[in-house]
């Protein structure tokens, strides 16, 4: 099912927002303005946007260490995300959480975690809460190929399966966990095959094709709302940059990087929209300009915001 014209344009905007946001974060990191580390989402935008385009404000997501894109796609405020990344008081965690800890319950972002795989049981728990409260919400849980080798993957998905919880388990298979290639740590090619072990559907999609991701997530949401249980969606994708910070990613063959850059989800979607008559080139240029302005405003807001006071360090740590 193809989304409406308005929705398609909104999806394109979100993807571009994430891309330009990440490019800016990378630049600021280079200027030593980002405390801690960063894991950029550039290259994987079609996954977050394709999934979140099926979610309403009251639906939930659980994010990861590579989470800026998930949060932006779900409706986080760019200014507050940027301020948090820069360690500023106006950020989502008052500047004390940083890049890996964005949460905003008001738009259904239950949080991110730097502990690989830890979000999977949390999503199952959120699914159980939905079931017990009897609402029609759903949860989308993002995690990587590396996370799918953690025990939490087995425990969380199995539990969600037996209790038929309304969860989308979205595996972003970007072929690497830090510098470790998938083929070194698993003998299967498609992680979605593991769904068989839990008695739930598993689908593998081109994670650089936002409409393919959208459709897979749409079906999974439908299934979740009918109380039929979770779905495992594997999205094959690629991160444009290294794992974190300035990882030059020299472990990746040059041809492989080139292959995936040609499959960049953003120009691909833009050409498709032009071809479909949804967008003209001039309109696409205009959107890009607007987004660049928006990002500049977020950066200005973050740079002009104060750092938290040292005496606030232990405040809000325990609830
Ligand atoms: C439990 C745990 N083990 C190891 C790490 C170190 N670590 C951080 S990110 C990462 C790789 C995760 O790979 P994947 O799940 O594929 O996500 P990607 O980084 O590719 O998005 C590892 C091993 C960690 N943060 N947590
Ligand atoms: Mg990975």
Provide a compact summary of the structure:
This protein is of the alpha/beta class and 319 residues long. It has helices at residues 5-30, 45-52, 68-74, 78-85, 119-133, 151-162, 182-185, 210-225, 254-262, 265-275, 281-304, and strands at residues 60-62, 139-144, 167-173, 176-177, 180-181, 202-206, 231-236.
Give an overview in words:
- The protein is of the alpha/beta class.
- Helices cover 44% and strands 10% of the residues.
- It contains eleven helices and seven strands.
- It has helices at 5-30, 45-52, 68-74, 78-85, 119-133, 151-162, 182-185, 210-225, 254-262, 265-275, 281-304, and strands at residues 60-62, 139-144, 167-173, 176-177, 180-181, 202-206, 231-236.
- The strands form two sheets. The chain has a five-stranded parallel beta sheet with strand order 1-2-3-7-6, sandwiched between helices.
- Helix 6 links the parallel strand 2 (139-144) and strand 3 (167-173).
- Bound molecules: thiamine diphosphate and magnesium ion.
- Thiamine diphosphate binds at residues 65-66, 114-116, 144-147, 174, 176-178, 243.
List the keywords.
single chain, 319 residues, alpha/beta, five-stranded parallel β-sheet, two-stranded antiparallel ribbon, 7 strands, binds thiamine diphosphate, binds magnesium ion
Q: What's the story with the biggest beta sheet? A: 5 strands, parallel
Distance between the termini: 44 Å
Low-confidence stretches: none
Give the SSE order as H and E letters: HHEHHHEHEEEHEHEHHH
> What is the total tally of β strands?
7
Give the structural class: alpha/beta
Strand order of the largest sheet: 1-2-3-7-6
Please compute the radius of gyration using only Cα atoms: 19 Å
Overall shape: globular
Strand residue percentage:
5-15%
Please tell me the overall pLDDT: 97
| Count of helical stretches | 11
List each distinct ligand once: thiamine diphosphate, magnesium ion
How helical, in percent, are the residues? 40-55%
């Amino acid at each position: 099912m193809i989304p409406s014209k308005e929705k398609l344009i909104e999806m394109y905007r979100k993807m571009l927002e994430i891309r330009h946001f990440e490019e800016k974060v990378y630049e600021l990191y280079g200027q030593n303005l980002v405390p801690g580390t960063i894991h950029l989402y550039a290259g994987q935008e079609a996954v977050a946007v394709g999934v979140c385009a099926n979610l309403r404000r009251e639906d939930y997501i659980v994010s990861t260490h590579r989470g800026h894109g998930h949060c932006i796609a779900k409706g986080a405020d760019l200014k507050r995300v940027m301020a948090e990344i820069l360690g500023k008081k106006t950020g989502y965690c008052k500047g004390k959480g940083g890049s890996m800890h964005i949460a905003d319950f008001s738009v259904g972002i239950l949080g991110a975690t730097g502990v690989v795989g830890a979000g999977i049981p949390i999503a199952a728990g959120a699914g159980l809460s939905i079931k017990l409260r009897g609402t029609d919400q759903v949860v989308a849980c993002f995690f990587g190929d590396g996370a799918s080798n953690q025990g939490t993957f087995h425990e969380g998905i199995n539990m969600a399966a037996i209790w038929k919880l309304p969860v989308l388990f979205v595996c972003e298979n970007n072929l690497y966990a830090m510098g470790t290639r998938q083929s070194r740590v698993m003998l299967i090619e498609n992680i979605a095959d593991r769904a068989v072990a839990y008695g739930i559907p598993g689908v593998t999609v081109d994670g650089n094709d936002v409409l393919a991701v959208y459709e897979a997530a749409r079906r999974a949401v439908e299934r979740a709302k009918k109380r039929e249980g979770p779905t495992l969606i594997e999205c094959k994708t690629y991160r444009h940059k290294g794992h974190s910070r300035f990882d030059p990613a020299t472990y990746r063959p040059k041809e492989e990087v080139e292959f995936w850059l040609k499959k960049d989800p953003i120009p691909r979607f833009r050409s498709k929209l032009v071809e479909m008559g949804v967008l003209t080139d001039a309109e696409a240029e205009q959107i890009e300009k607007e987004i660049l302005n928006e990002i500049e405003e977020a950066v200005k807001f973050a740079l002009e915001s104060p750092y938290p006071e040292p005496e606030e360090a232990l405040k809000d740590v325990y609830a």
